[in-house]
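Lay summary. Proteins are chains of building blocks that fold into shapes, and those shapes determine what they do. In this project we predict the shape from the chain. Here is one chain we studied, written as its sequence of building blocks.
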Amino acid sequence: MSTNDSIPGVQRPLTPAETDRLMAGIAEATSTAQLLTNTIRALYNALLADTGHTVDDFHAGKRLDPGNCAIPRSQWQALVAAITDRAAQWGTAATLALELVNLMPGFYDDPTVPAPTLPKVDYRPEVHQLHVTRDATDVIAACDAHIHELGTYYGRQSRIYLDALDSWHHQLAQLFSMELGAHTRISADGRLSLLVSTGSGIVFGVIFHGALRRCTADGCAATIRDDGSAYPRYSGAPMAAHDHTPSYPLGAPQPGRWSFHS
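And here is the predicted shape, written in a compact code that computers can read:
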């Protein structure tokens, strides 16, 4: 929509011919930038043709408002899925999905318009290359050893052990995902944490969040160090003058979970 002019609202289904042209353009894209730019231009040009306009008619002083156009939800979802599936070749599906939220036209419900039947193509590269530094292999071994210690000390049916094991396995499986590209470098980021650099340029950490050893007595907000000394959990926190009762024993392996942090 324009800042000094307006176009009639366009709300209609895409025709089969328009859908076929969009899908052909998606399949032919050779980069993420081309995939996004060409698909969005082709989509709006199809809808704007009803008004006698094209995307080229808009500029800084006359902007196109995506909310002024809409297609059925079924077609909108199928188109977004096709675009993000295509981006799997470059590991940019996640970032592209965020872009599409701002660039795509709106949608509306129309149960008479079925989702288009589209071929499912696996665009992921044949090989995912994982480069693991020597220090990172030591961290992975240390994480496995820490989980084993938790199971030995607290029991393999304990929530402490199962939470740690589940979170570590989930994060480890994510390292093999191609959603962020097929070239991944894994390095150490502390004794029990990893730094991951992906082919798409996104860098994130697999971070161990160890539980603080706290006093469990009512009204006491003390945190207890490994040597048994205590300090206030936060500035001005009440600390009772008593023998603190730790949330987990001194000398015991530290409970905790691993999580993804960008």
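What the prediction tells us: The longest helix spans residues 134-154.
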